[in-house]
Design brief:
The chain is 43% helix and 20% strand. It is built from 9 helices and 8 strands. Strands 7-6-5-4-3-2-1-8 form an 8-stranded parallel beta sheet. Helix 3 runs parallel beside helix 4 and helix 6 runs parallel beside helix 7. The radius of gyration is 16 Å and the shape is globular. The structure holds pyridoxal-5'-phosphate (PLP). Pyridoxal-5'-phosphate (PLP) binds next to strand 8 and helix 9.
């Protein structure tokens, strides 16, 4: 028995068609990523630049890597070299740097703008107003394509609060899409709350613990 393959099969069976699964492999060894790959998973999420680079070099090239962690400006080059999607863009400065580093590398990177709606001030991201201002200031960057919004709900057992947070994230995504018709992605929902995110319109969920176990 392979628990990772079983976990993936169970989650895929529950996930509605059309919602993408980002398997969050951060802090788990490359052997675990390989098990998930052998079970058919191709999209993985990582939160640290060096770990992303090491795993990307060890895994086949058809893996689609999503960067989901706080990105320091001195790590942008490393992340741009490996990530298909940077989900955690939280400032105009970072977005412009991703664009210029991607230009330098001769590639185009999809980005999501990270919104902060949760109660905890530990969670990174922009306020809805900041996010829309950044999107408006950075329209049409040639090498960093704004594809949507990423967000997290408050870490609580209060399902109504979680659903409210996801509804607020979805509302920001809808406003962004009025400005950027190609910004169709809504990344929200983790191991403990993804069904609520799907109810509020998530187009992708980011699941770590329920696939790979505790970190
Ligand atoms: C770690 C992480 C996840 C996955 O969380 P789990 O609770 O393990 O499913 C999702 N999104 C982000 C931004 C993360 O940092």
């Amino acid at each position: 028995m392979c628990p990772i393959a079983d976990n993936l099969a169970r989650i895929r069976a529950e996930l509605p068609a059309g919602v993408r699964l980002v398997a969050v492999s951060k802090f788990h060894p490359v052997e675990a990523v390989r098990e998930a790959y052998d079970a058919g998973q191709r999209v993985f999420g990582e939160s640290r630049a060096a770990e992303l680079a090491a795993k990307a070099q060890a895994m086949p090239p058809d893996v689609e890597w999503h960067f989901i962690g706080h990105l320091q400006t001195n790590k942008v080059r490393t992340v741009v070299a490996h990530a298909s999607v940077i989900e955690s863009v939280d400032s105009e400065r970072l977005l412009r740097l991703i664009d210029s580093e991607a230009a330098r590398a001769g590639r185009t990177v999809d980005v999501l703008l990270q919104v902060h709606v949760a109660a905890e001030d530990t969670k990174t991201g922009m306020t809805p107003a900041e996010l829309l201002a950044v999107a408006s200031a950075c329209r049409g960057l040639p090498h960093a394509r704004i594809r949507g919004v990423m967000g997290m709900a408050t870490n609580t057992d209060d399902r109504r609060r979680i659903a409210d947070d996801f509804r607020n994230i979805a509302a920001v995504a809808a406003q962004l899409q009025l400005m950027e018709p190609g910004a169709t992605e809504l990344s929200m929902g983790m191991s403990h709350d993804w069904p609520l995110a799907v109810e509020q319109g998530a187009t992708s969920v980011r699941i770590g613990t329920d696939i790979f176990g505790a970190r």
